[in-house]
Amino acid sequence: MSPMFVPGPVDVAPEVLAAQNQAMLPHRSQEFEEIFRRVSEKSQQLFFTRERVYLTACSGSGLQEAAVRNLANRRVLSFINGAFGNRWYDVALTNGKYVDKFDVPWNQPVTPEAIFEALKGDSYDLLTVVHNETSTSLQNPIKEIAEAARSASPDTLIAVDAVSSLGGARIEMDAWGLDLVLTSSQKCLALPPGLSLMAVSERALQRAQDVPDRGWYFDLLRLEKHRLKDSSPSTPAMSLIYALDVQLDRILLEGLENRFARHSALAKSVQSWTLERGLGLYAPEGYRSQTVTAVENLLDLNITELNACLMEQDMRIASGYGQLKGKTFRIAHMGETQLADIERLLTALDAQIG
Ligand SMILES: Cc1ncc(COP(=O)(O)O)c(C=O)c1O
To answer: Which of 52-61, 142-151, 171-180, 298-307 has the lowest average pLDDT?
Structure first.
């Protein structure tokens, strides 16, 4: 592997890459359906759910679209404190939904209080919120957000984007009362891009029945009909499912608790280094991501030059995202990354910073 400290696509373990080399099967065959069932069932553990998990051939944005197409008859409320919350708002808007946005400063969390106030006395079908804002490295308190949403507006469905956190940070779909949680392959799951996973609650599935114009590709009722036959409506991303099968075994062998602890230790190490070097942490204390760190570039480092040096040593970091480009750079610590990898990166950065 060549350590890529960028927030996706991340490095993929050789045995996981190799798993894709298996022969293709007819997707309506018993052999493939057996694999599809096994992988769907194992995936439930990632979400801490007994609800259904769909495996879809698309990137994360596709499932943002699936959520708004299926779960909102009319009104959506999108909370935005980063670029991907904003994308979800755009996705809802461009799918013809009546969507309100609630903007929060990008360096501040979405609070349960704000959620409660925004939902109270109103009638939104769906709330969209991002768990781990990859653009800012801020982790929103989803458990508390969901509690507040349920008490302010019990009928509003809660959809969570966990694209850059699921498998690296805890997110408990059932215990926290979430209706839809989505993620994609190329981040904490450390798979090649192109496969996305979505866990959906029973009441969300019921809601979809009342929503017209759900489209075809992401129609939850169609996905469910096929899932019950251990299959998907359209041709699945077979090679990626082979890879996910192997990767889930690796993840479960490491243990989810150990995996979360490893990500947390990596984050702490990057955060300490950042502050010790006189750089800043964009996300506030208590809400810092354990999978990626946005570093405020207080030393005016030239990130392009820095990366050129790192790439000579087979490493790379990411520049700031969207409106934070130039002001921040990002160090991802997700997927296969180990403490020794981070130490090597930080030593190389020290050599450049001087
Ligand atoms: C939190 C979050 N949501 C959504 C997306 C969009 O995912 P994709 O580019 O896989 O469509 C990303 C991509 O980085 C992301 O980080």
So the answer is: 298-307
